[in-house]
Write a structure and sequence with these properties.
- With 443 residues, the chain is of the alpha+beta class.
- The protein is built from 16 helices and 10 strands.
- Strands 1, 2, 3, 4, 5 and 8 form a 6-stranded mixed beta sheet that branches. A two-stranded antiparallel ribbon has the order 6-7.
- β3 and β4 form a beta hairpin.
- α8 packs antiparallel against α10 and α12 runs antiparallel to α13.
- The chain is elongated and about 85 Å long.
């Protein structure tokens, strides 16, 4: 037995609740099973039970054995002092809160072992999307409703990250956007050094500087101009950097932190830094830009991202390393940066300014952008789930990362539908898994 299965039974009321009684034989009425809590603290918040005509409101905790309460050291955690009911598979020890025994319910005699067996095999599947063999049997609405939920969760999570920056570092709105853009430019490989770079740059002064000054500052703060190099372009930037470093009281970072390995030449940090400086220079930093129609806004952002930094970076992918032609940033990369920076920023603006214009613009941008192309999206496509735009692909990415990989099926409407047997023929598939059939096409 495992707690995960007990959580599923309780959350979905897959128990004869009207027959439940405490280990002392007292009849009990479950008025509300509570709200499932996947994080730390009691398993279900704000439950409500009635014992001997007395109504109790509070939290509900579940364990395989009663003694797990002490094993998990809940007796020392104030978060558990408001537990009104202890639901266990097997009762082996009486548990007290402040000297008073907790009402305890044992479920051992109520388990449907055939269902438990199926549930367990479902969770032990060694695959990224563990419900993939059931997707074809589910109504499309169930899947896409969960994808929409995942989009909201993803944007809210990214908005919270920006809120932390805004409040802890007391940033202006421009500075928050600047940090969001720098993080997006780093992609996965160089996200951290790009964030450190943004922290070391005075944003307002940087925005007002010339294109050449911007290039000198990003390469200087990035640590690429500390040593001399036999390249005229490098020497020119270094001279400008030495002046800007003194004028703005800047500090050079550590060049070692930047990763070239795992990047194609077009994605080398030197290329990305030059593109970042160029985009900040081309970007319209006034608030008026956010009130443009979504398609106009998208076109302006894409054009600003795709403009080359200067002629040097059209023929070089690093200082002194020449190439006949460097293609520069691709439209797919530009779209990814917009999706991961501008869209969350607009969502965050709504949360902070209470103006739905920004959130609506974020949605419109995602609907105007093509669906992303990566391994996770390719996997969903192979199962017939084909996103039409970035709004849907963002939802699928969040669904994969925050639900599927974490096996958070109890928080997922798709997982719940599968576990409860809500498939087209209304019959759960017990005891065996179907082999994958021909690919679906829901587009």
């Amino acid at each position: 037995m495992n707690e995960h299965y007990l959580h599923f039974l309780w959350k979905n009321k897959r128990l004869p609740l009207h027959q439940l009684q405490t280990i002392d034989g007292e009849k009990m009425e479950i008025l509300h099973v509570g709200f499932y809590n996947p994080d730390s603290g009691p398993d279900f918040f704000n439950g409500q039970i009635r014992i001997d005509q007395v109504t109790h409101s509070g939290n509900i905790e579940m364990h395989v054995r009663s003694s797990d309460w002490n094993l998990h050291r809940h007796q020392h955690d104030p978060a558990y002092f408001n537990v009104i009911l202890h639901v266990v598979y097997e009762h082996d020890q009486l548990i007290f809160i402040e000297g008073i025994p907790i009402p305890t319910v044992e479920l051992k005699a109520l388990i449907d072992w055939k269902h438990y067996d199926w549930f367990n095999r479902y969770y032990k599947k060694n695959t990224m999307i563990i419900c993939e063999t059931f997707l074809k049997q589910l109504p499309q609405a169930v899947i896409w409703n969960q994808v929409e939920r995942a989009v909201f969760q993803r944007m809210a999570r990214k908005s919270d990250e920006l809120n932390t920056l805004f409040r802890e570092r007391k940033m202006s709105f421009k500075e928050v956007l600047f940090h969001a853009i720098s993080k997006a430019f780093g992609m996965k490989v160089n996200q951290l050094p790009f964030q450190e770079l943004a922290t070391g740059i005075p944003v307002e002064k940087f925005i007002r500087s010339s294109r050449k000054q911007k290039l000198a500052i990003v390469f200087g703060v990035g640590g690429f101009l500390e040593k001399s190099a036999p390249v005229i372009y490098h020497r020119e930037l270094k001279e400008e950097w030495d002046f800007q470093k003194f004028k703005l009281k800047l500090y050079a970072g550590n060049q070692v932190g930047w990763k070239f390995k795992g990047c194609r030449p077009g994605g080398f940090p030197t290329q990305r830094l030059a593109q970042f400086a160029a985009f900040v220079h081309e970007m319209d930093w006034t608030s008026a830009i956010w009130y443009l129609p979504a398609k106009s806004l998208l076109r302006i952002l894409q054009e600003s991202l795709l403009k080359p930094a200067d002629t040097y970076w059209t023929t070089h992918f690093d200082f002194g390393k020449e190439k006949k032609s460097c293609s520069g940033m691709s439209i797919a990369t530009a779209n990814t940066i917009i999706t991961n920076s501008v869209v969350p920023f607009l969502w965050w603006l709504t949360d902070n300014l209470s103006d739905e214009t920004y959130r609506n613009r974020a949605f419109e941008l995602l609907e105007s952008l093509p669906a992303e192309q990566n391994g996770k999206i390719a996997l969903w496509k192979s199962m017939g789930i084909k996103p039409k735009n970035a709004l849907e692909s963002q939802g699928l990415i969040e669904l994969t990362n925050e639900f599927c990989l974490k096996k958070a099926c109890l928080n997922c409407t798709i997982g719940n539908a599968v576990l409860k047997g809500e498939i087209k023929n209304n019959q759960p598939v017990l005891g065996k898994f179907r082999k994958r059939s021909a690919l679906m096409d829901w587009s």
